[in-house]
Design a protein that fits this description.
This protein has 202 residues and is an all-alpha fold. It has one domain: Orthogonal Bundle (Endonuclease III, domain 1). 52% of the residues lie in helices and 3% in strands. A hairpin with a 5-residue loop joins strand 1 and strand 2. The longest helix has 21 residues.
Length: 202
């Protein structure tokens, strides 16, 4: 199976972004570009945990509903959520109504506060786990890596939930710690240039 498709502008792209229309703008404008904004990183961790066992299309189509339901993924606001908020979320048809994942998101907001206190920012912690070049093989051939295992293990040790190694690998792909655009995808070079101009927070 080819890893590339031809986009509407005639440029090649990763084949997965042609599966459904909403994937193309996500692929072109978000996926694989480095992120150092704590809110975006926290949101992505939360959404990836909600995706567990589901398709990314489901989560992407509900993303704005998730943002509204979870206070824009401001961890300081989520930390204030009460049992009434939990029930509100469980009755919100615009999100994934899974009690364990909802509870994990609220728990992870508290862990996020601890992370910022201990490390200065989530971004400073996350970017320590950018994989070494020798760990990366052919793009889009892996769903887990030694680094995603290590990061998942450390987050679990710190009390974070619903963030296994496969979930973390997908997070790393999306947030630009890995440039996993297919060879020949027009966005691979764009992602490379973005990373070259990006200074990881410390």
């Amino acid at each position: 199976m080819s890893t590339l498709i031809t986009g509407p502008d005639g440029q090649n792209r990763c084949s997965w972004c042609g599966d459904v229309p909403e994937f193309l703008p996500y692929h072109d404008n978000e996926w694989g570009y480095p992120v150092d904004d704590d809110t975006r990183l926290f949101e992505k961790l939360c959404l990836e945990s909600f995706q567990s066992g589901l398709s990314w299309r489901t989560i992407l189509n509900k993303r704005e509903n998730f943002r509204a339901a979870f206070a824009g993924f401001d961890y300081r606001e989520i930390m204030k959520f009460t049992d009434a908020d939990r029930e509100r979320l469980l009755n919100d048809p615009g999100i994934v109504r899974n009690r364990l994942k909802i509870d994990a998101t609220i728990n992870n907001a508290h862990r996020m506060a601890e992370m910022v206190e201990a490390e200065g920012s989530l971004a400073a912690f996350i970017w320590r786990y950018e994989p070494p070049a020798e760990e990366l093989g052919e793009p889009q051939t892996a769903s887990i890596s030694p680094t995603s295992i290590a990061l998942s293990k450390e987050l679990k040790k710190r009390g974070w939930k619903f963030l296994g190694p496969t979930t973390i690998f997908a997070f790393m792909q999306a947030m630009g710690l890995i440039n996993d655009h297919a060879i020949g995808c027009a966005m691979r070079e764009k992602a490379r240039k973005n990373r070259a101009a990006f200074t990881p927070p410390r």
